[in-house]
Automatic annotation (TrEMBL):
Protein's recorded name: Probable butyrate kinase
UniProt catalytic activity: butanoate + ATP = butanoyl phosphate + ADP
Subcellular location: Cytoplasm
Stored Pfam families: Acetate_kinase
Family named by the database record: Belongs to the acetokinase family.
Length: 374
């Protein structure tokens, strides 16, 4: 096992996580929560850069942590255009697109590349992003929709999904490229995906509202029903149902899954129906991914914070255990996944990739011939 020194930075909506690794061993980590009023004082997410950078510097100094000799710094990659999975060098184009939010999504993860590059330049290290949220490896059959010129893209928890798949492949004595998995991330957001030959060939656009209901997301709904519900509402209000004000928030005003599950366990009929419906929809989504993989599956893997809940795991196992063995990986491995991606590149077991700065899917050849895709 290599002993590369890797520093990882993960800016979230209300916190910043940092961790220092020697090889696969975490030697220091902190998760700092930020006051909502402090963050709200910045007119744009990009304006938070100095605030978060200075907070990281202060944390390292207070804990006597030196980054001297660090081999690589990895930042959570946000704001980028769609790409295939892998580890990418943070070059000037990555910096430009992450800073402006080229994908149209404003999220603190877009600060990750800039923060990583800042520390990497200071300590003469490599700077990377690993499996950013915009990883899109859909097979052609997963692209088409029933509306001409409208094609599917996906936004999933790619970093954790792929890390769980890589870890389980190793347990089976195989490589990720040799396996076929259904991998779920069940937390504040819910991702269900099909993996084959080292690629995430199908899944759901959870930012766009696809897939199972989640604590803050509405999940898949008939378009006609949504249109009727949203008459008189602005486009922004409708988008918020997909990403922030749907799911548990729409029903109860809270996104707290633990609170809802406890109410369900204590006999609250509304909470129980809502909790069980979410799990039912996850099971349905897993079934659809089983069809994508033609039933040839090496395992169903469950990651994310809600997987600590035994009732959830038991319900999914009861509904889907006949498809393939189900293995829970409770919690998240984002920091470990970022470090592992850097190590693979430094070890030269995986080639570093160059960000192209264009959407990975540019339409089919027949679209270009007929000028249908723009």
């Amino acid at each position: 096992m290599s002993n590369y020194k890797i520093f990882t930075i993960n800016p979230g909506s209300t916190s910043t996580k940092i961790a220092l690794f020697e090889g696969e061993r975490e030697i220091f980590s902190r998760n700092v929560s930020h006051d909502a009023k402090t963050l709200a004082a910045f007119p744009a997410i990009s304006g938070q850069f100095s605030y978060r950078r200075d907070m990281i510097v202060k944390l390292l100094e207070e804990n006597g942590i030196s980054l001297s000799g660090v081999d690589a710094v990895v930042g959570r990659g946000g704001g980028l255009l769609s790409m295939e999975g892998g580890t990418y060098e943070i070059d000037d184009l990555v910096l430009k697109h992450s800073q402006t939010g080229a994908n149209g999504v404003q999220h603190p993860a877009m600060l990750g590349p800039r923060l990583a590059r800042e520390f990497a330049d200071l300590y003469h290290a490599k700077a990377y992003v690993v499996n950013p949220p915009d990883v899109d490896e859909l097979q052609d059959l997963a692209r088409m929709t029933g509306i001409k010129g409208v094609y599917r893209v996906i936004h999933l928890h790619a970093l954790n999904l792929k890390e769980v798949a890589i870890r389980h492949s190793a347990l089976l004595g195989k490589t990720y490229e040799d396996c076929r998995f259904i991998v779920c991330h069940i937390g504040g957001g819910i991702s269900v995906s099909a993996h084959r030959a080292g690629r995430m060939i199908d899944g759901f656009d959870i930012v766009g509202g696809e897939g199972p209901m989640a604590p803050t997301r509405c999940g898949s709904i008939a378009v006609a029903d949504l249109l009727r519900h949203c008459e008189g509402k602005t486009l922004q209000e409708v988008k918020l149902l997909c990403t922030e004000k749907g799911g548990f928030v729409s029903h109860t005003g809270s996104s707290d899954a633990l609170e809802l599950s406890q109410k369900a366990q204590n006999g609250d009929p509304y909470a129980k129906l809502l909790w069980d419906t979410m799990i039912y929809q996850i099971a349905k989504a897993i079934g659809s991914m089983a069809a994508v993989l033609h039933g040839k599956i090496d395992g169903i893997l469950l990651g994310g914070g809600m997987v600590h809940n035994k009732n959830l795991v038991n319900q999914i196992t009861e509904a889907c255990g006949w498809i393939a063995a189900i293995t829970p990986y409770p919690g998240e491995f984002e920091m470990e996944a970022m470090a592992a991606g850097a190590v693979r590149v430094l070890d030269r077991t995986e080639a570093v990739k160059q960000y192209q700065g264009v959407c990975r899917f540019q339409g089919f050849d027949f679209d270009k011939e007929r000028n249908l895709f723009h």
